[in-house]
Structure formats: structure tokens, C-alpha cells
Amino acid sequence: MTSEVVDKYPSRGNASVRLIPRVDPVVYAPPPVSLLQYITAEQVAQYERDGFLVLPEVFSAEEVASFQEELDLLRNDATLRSSDGVITEPGSGDVRSVFSVHTISPLFQRLAADARLAEVARGLLDDEVYIHQSRLNYKPGFRGKEFYWHSDFETWHVEDGMPSMRALSMSITLTENNPYNGALMLMPGSHKSYAVCSGETPDEHYKASLKKQDYGVPEDELLTELQARHGLVGAIAKPGSVIIFDCNVMHGSNSNITPDPRSNVFFVYNAISNRVVEPFCHKPARPEFLGSRKHIERLVPETVE
Amino acid sequence: MTSEVVDKYPSRGNASVRLIPRVDPVVYAPPPVSLLQYITAEQVAQYERDGFLVLPEVFSAEEVASFQEELDLLRNDATLRSSDGVITEPGSGDVRSVFSVHTISPLFQRLAADARLAEVARGLLDDEVYIHQSRLNYKPGFRGKEFYWHSDFETWHVEDGMPSMRALSMSITLTENNPYNGALMLMPGSHKSYAVCSGETPDEHYKASLKKQDYGVPEDELLTELQARHGLVGAIAKPGSVIIFDCNVMHGSNSNITPDPRSNVFFVYNAISNRVVEPFCHKPARPEFLGSRKHIERLVPETVE
């Protein structure tokens, strides 16, 4: 089960906990015309510098309403509820995430391929892209739990076998994200450092980590250092906005005791040239719904499974 | 153990869950000259309307440093750590609150009586005041837990026997309170409604409630209604500021995963004429460190106990 690809970003196991420099680009080519239809050259530069970018109100109120309706359908679907790709809140049992929505919902399948998203991903990564992971996040009001600080890439690299930092996430906000309802917090510029984490990856770690992550969690001292260097900002956005963030930017969110739920639909675009190999932790790969290994040649499956 | 004082604000037990109007004033007299030395008539009106007021940077950096130093001493005092008045975080065991600091620390005893605080409390409540409760709150970085929505008065009334809404809290910020490190959130205007809560008060409820409150918690529907009416705001403040808030304003705070701790020192000023009687839940009163019954004649004890 060893990978033939060199491990550019060792983490966990014997790796010593520290910040190491990113060796991959953030933006892989000067912005092509196809990208500049959707975002400006200044926004591309900002994304390169900060590791994230908020595009306000890309989708119309009608589109957001249709996404929200689909979210409610999926969230309350009794058949789905018992599937592995549906994650519930510790305690309340409320649905917190529905994974792989681009394979179970024709609407979200179309959304993943929407040029306002996919063309931007292609342009920034300078490659064809596929969906490594997709999900609906639903952080309920009153009892929404926090997501602790993490770099997505650390897990995708160690547990999924993603070789390089040539992937990005797009979060489409379905509700207002304000500072008090658990908005995404990011450390701008942190994507240029890789926080090596401690600990061995346990078997079937993903089952526990979806509720509460204990591995792939940056040490306090590294987070303190990253915040001292970069500060932190909240991604505040109206519904229908798109938060684009690099696979290695440090991010997290606090709990949400406000009555306002916070929900979004979330796609991870990976460059085709960066398709996953064997996991670098030498454990079996995580399930398909967490890191796609089957549908890596095409952005949009022809049929919904 | 029945109280001879009429229960103006029944809650829990047979009381039906709903919002009932406040029958007490918020500001008890036109602002006297002694009050206007410290806050303006406009600020008094704002406090009356919103149920809270932030006074920016009342204390100097030197004063804040001395409070912070005293906080660290108390927080790390091994003798104190085992006492009832020291509350630790579920999970980490870190000290989260130290109660009754005005009786264990000469510095905080003097601070409670400082005219910048006590004179304002006297002026707003139009009475001599005493300390019903005091505490240091220390919400650590990374793992600071949320405090769920509540009206202080509901608990002070039901469990401590405080008859009327003639008390207020002052929180002196020792660190920056920003939207992301678990700042106090308040619903401005909510202090004019009383949210009747459900459930019986269990015996020795305070022991569990200091870590996680299960009674005296407003129902979702009432919080939704209050937010719809009033919205919510965060009390954002630099160190050394004073957040004054009415005993019945609905407030809470989210978790804090940022590296920045959030700490404050907190005094509850109650009007002498509103001194506590037997608890309205007909259970034994909570311990002295949660609701003073002994030191109700004098603001500042002559000697530190």
C-alpha cells in the first residue's frame, strides 16, 4: 500500500510538528480570458495572497431558494439519513452534513459544473477539474457545533493521497453568514505554510473525525504563530455568495447559539493532474463520499447514482 | 421555606412558557448629578432602551495589567482550585471562572467599590447597592466553550430569591472582545420581556448548571421571537471597557476556537431594597459564592476573608 509518489508534505507519524513552506503554486497560471469573465485580475491576486476570496451574491435569490429547498429535502430524507454520507450532530442527532450531493442530486450536479464555479476553478488551477468531495453543511441555530481549525489539504494528503496543493473549495452560502452564526474564519496568508500535525492516523479515523477531529489537528503553538503572522478574518457574506478557498488555508468556525442556521453547499475542485494516489498514511483510503477515487475523469457524472 | 414576597415572575414548575412583560423599571430615577459625572443622559437613555451599554476604555492599560496579573494569580492558585467557587472547563480542566473575587482579593474588593462602577450602579438603580455575585471569567483560546442564552434574573429570581429586576451586571474586559473570540451577544430591548422557562429545578442544580445549564434555559421559540423583535449585537470592546447590562437582558456567547483568550471580571450590583428572600423555587438557596446572603448591607467588606 505504499505510494510511488514522493511525499512532499509529510505529517503525523514521525514528522516533527512545525510549519514548513508550501512548495506548490497557489494560482497555477496567469489568469486566462475564461477566468476573467468571472473574476478580475485583482481578485486573482487577492486569492493568491490571502488564500481565499469572497464573491458576493453570485447566485440569485431564486437560485438560492431552489438550493435551500433541495437542501431541506435531502436533510429530511429518511432513506439518506441512514447512509454513511449523512452526518448528524453529536447530542441532538440533527443532520449536520450530507456528502456527495453532486452524485445524489441532479440540481447540485448541475451546480458543480456551473461555469460561475467550475470555470473559476479551472482558471486558478490551470487544469481540468473534478469534484474530490461535495457536501451540504447545515449548522443549525441554537446548537450548531464548532469546526476546529484545520487545513483541508493535510487530511486530503495524508488520508486520501492527494499529492499536491492543486485543489480549492467553493462554499456557496445559502443563508447569511455573519460573525455570530458560526461564519467561516480564515487566516489570510496561512495557505503558504503547511502545519505538520502530530499523532498516528487511527484505522477508520474518518468515522470519528466527521463528528470530532482528534488527528490532523494543528498544535496550539502553530496556530498561535499563524495568527500572529496573519491574523484572522471572518467570511461574512449574504446568501448566494461564493467563498473560494485554497486547500491549505487554515480555517475553522465557532459554535452557533443564535437562532439563525448557517448552511452552505460545498464543492472541492481538484486538478485532474493532481488526482489522488494511495494515502500517504499507508492506511486504506477513506470512502468514496469523502474523497472520490471513481469519478476523477469527469466533472459531471452523466447519470445520478 | 415559602417566600412571603409575591412572585412577580413565576418560572419553571407549572408556569407556562411564554414572554411576559417586565413590570419593573429599568432606570429607577432621572439621572442624578453623581451619575452624570460618569455617563451622559444619552447613555442612560440608551441603557434604558437596549438593556445594556458599553463604556469604552474606562480603565487604563496599567489598571488592566494589574487586574490581569491578579486574575492569573487566582486562576493558578492551587489552594483555590479545589474550592467550590472555582469552575473548570468540561474536558480540559482549565479554570473557567473564579467566583466571589471581591471577597478573596483586596484588589477586586477595591474595584467593586470603585466609583466608576458603583456610582453608576447606584445612579441607575436609585439605591445603595451590594454585590450579589462576582466572578472572573476566563474563556481560554482554542477550547473556550459557549455560554448558552439566558436571562440572569430568571435564575437569580427562581434559585436565589431576588424579588425584582433592580440589579445589573458590570463586566470589565481584560482582553479585547471581538466578534470571533466569544464576545458577549445581547438582544437589545429583550430586557423588557421575561422569558418564562420550563422544567422543575432539580436539587443542587447549581453544581451541574455551572458547567452546562439545563434549566432556566429559554425555549427555542421564545429566543426566535426575541431575536425577530430585537435582533442581536455583540459587545465588542477593547481591554478596560465596561459592559453594563440589565439583569434581565437576554445574552449568551459562542465558543472560542481562536488563539485569543477572552477574560473579564464581573460584578452584579443589586439594590439594597431588592435584597434576596427565600428562593421562589422553594429549594434551599444556592451557596454564598453564587448569590450573597451574608454581605448584603455593605458594598465592600472591611476585611478580606
What attributes does this structure have?
Jelly Rolls; 20% strand; homodimer; seven-stranded antiparallel beta sheet; 10 helices; 305 residues
List the SSEs and their pairings.
The structure is a homodimer of 305-residue chains.
Chain A: E1 19-21, H1 33-36, H2 41-50, E2 52-55, H3 61-75, H4 78-81, E3 86-88, E4 95-99, H5 101-104, H6 106-113, H7 115-125, E5 129-139, E6 147-150, H8 152-160, E7 167-173, E8 185-186, E9 193-195, H9 205-209, H10 220-230, E10 233-234, E11 242-246, E12 251-253, E13 262-271
Antiparallel strand pairs in A: 1-9, 2-11, 3-4, 4-5, 5-13, 6-12, 7-11, 7-13, 8-10, 8-12
CATH H-level name of chain A... which superfamily?
q2cbj1_9rhob like domain
The run of helices and strands of chain A is: EHHEHHEEHHHEEHEEEHHEEEE
Number of strands of chain A: 13
Assembly state here?
homodimer
Summed over residues and divided by their number, the pLDDT of chain A gives a mean of 90
The class by helix and strand makeup of chain A works out as alpha+beta
CATH class of chain A: Mainly Beta
**How is the main sheet of chain A built?**
7 strands, antiparallel
What fraction, in percent, of the residue positions of chain A are helical? 25-40%
Low-confidence stretches of chain A: 300-305
Count every helix of chain A, treating DSSP H or I runs of 4 or more residues as helices: 10
What would you say the CATH architecture of chain A is?
Answer: Sandwich
Range of strand content of chain A: 15-25%
